[in-house]
Amino acid sequence: MAEVREHPRPASAAADEAELVARLRAGDERAFESLVERYYGAMISVARGYVKTRDVAEEVVQEAWVGVLKGIDRFEGRSSLKSWIFKILVNTALTRGGREARTVPFSSVTPEEEDEPAVTPDCFRPPGEAFAGHWNAYPGDWSSVPEERLLGRETIDVVKRAVEELPESQRPVIAMRDIAGCSAEEVCDALGVSPGNQRVLLHRARSRVRAALEEHLDV
Amino acid sequence: MFESSEHITCREVVETVTEYFEGALRNDEAELFEQHLNFCEGCDWYVDQMRTTAESVGQVREEDIPPEARERLLSAFRDWRRSE
């Protein structure tokens, strides 16, 4: 496995992590399990951006955790543990993705992605008309949706499916940001995307999931 | 970034909401964005939808680890611990 380089970060949030790292080094199985539980789903989503099947993604995630364990003694805490784990995952997936003869050009956003509107253009008044570019009809007020519905199993399943159906370049970005709770810098660092492209990919991904939610909530 | 320096359209709000969330708009652009939200209920709701969307993706986290995958991971952990 390639050596993973760490990047500097602010000192905050490092304390909890330092404890977790110490427990991991000491061979505390509970510490390992809790880390796995926290990141497994997001790691699968990220891995799926690089390899063809769910089965291979699971193998990649397994291999990445072995890499994390082998490298934990060398982890110096200059980047977050999270960011370091995802970098190992991406390196593992790239190696595997190479073997699987599929690479995903994260560093470039496709022209379709650049132009893809977040909302279909006919939602807005056409150019030349009064109030061009303003809503034809307002989008729904989701604050009127009862919380049980907004956070219910059914809604979460809709979101989950929408994330699974995202283009391969968008899925890892939204998984790291919104599922794993990584910062923009951590995503750029692990996936090797520019800050501008990170934002475009995140915007497209969230816009698609929003559209799926809109259809489901029907407000 | 915006066509006019005086005001922005709903369409522009929709396309720049992530940049707004990410703090990537210039100060004057962020000001136009916020001014627009003050008088446009539709965009206020849209921005709220995008915020809710990001939060709801966060709810997906507890994807169950398949039992076999959990077993394989724990057994890799025990192998590693023995070899340390």
Description:
The complex is a heterodimer of chains A (219) and B (84). Chain A has 219 residues and is mainly α. In chain A, 59% of the residues lie in helices and 0% in strands. In chain A, helix 2 packs antiparallel against helix 8, helix 4 (81-99) runs parallel beside helix 9 (184-191) and helix 8 packs antiparallel against helix 9 (184-191). The N and C termini of chain A lie far apart (49 Å). Chain B has helices spanning 10-21, 27-39, 41-58, 67-83. Chain B is built from four helices and no strands. In chain B, helix 1 packs parallel to helix 3 (41-58). Chain B has one domain. Chain B is an all-alpha fold. The interface between A and B is large, with 57 and 45 residues.
Report the average pLDDT across residues of chain A.
86
Q: Treating each run of at least 4 consecutive H or I residues as one helix, how many helices of chain B?
A: 4
Helical percentage of chain A: 55-70%
Number of domains of chain B: 1
What does the largest sheet of chain A look like? none
Largest interface: A-B, 57 and 45 residues
Distance between the termini of chain A: 49 Å
Number of strands of chain B: 0
Q: Unreliable segments of chain A (pLDDT under 50, ≥5 consecutive)?
A: none
Percent helix of chain B: over 70%
Low-confidence stretches of chain B: none
Strand content of chain A: under 5%
Task: Give the SSE layout.
The complex is a heterodimer of chains A (219) and B (84).
Chain A: H1 14-25, H2 29-48, H3 54-71, H4 81-99, H5 111-115, H6 147-150, H7 153-164, H8 171-179, H9 184-191, H10 195-217
Helix pairs in contact in A: 2-3, 2-4, 2-8, 3-4, 4-9, 7-10, 8-9, 8-10
Chain B: H1 10-21, H2 27-39, H3 41-58, H4 67-83
Give a quick precis of the structure:
The complex is a heterodimer of chains A (219) and B (84). Chain A has 219 residues and is mainly α. Chain A has helices at residues 14-25, 29-48, 54-71, 81-99, 111-115, 147-150, 153-164, 171-179, 184-191, 195-217.
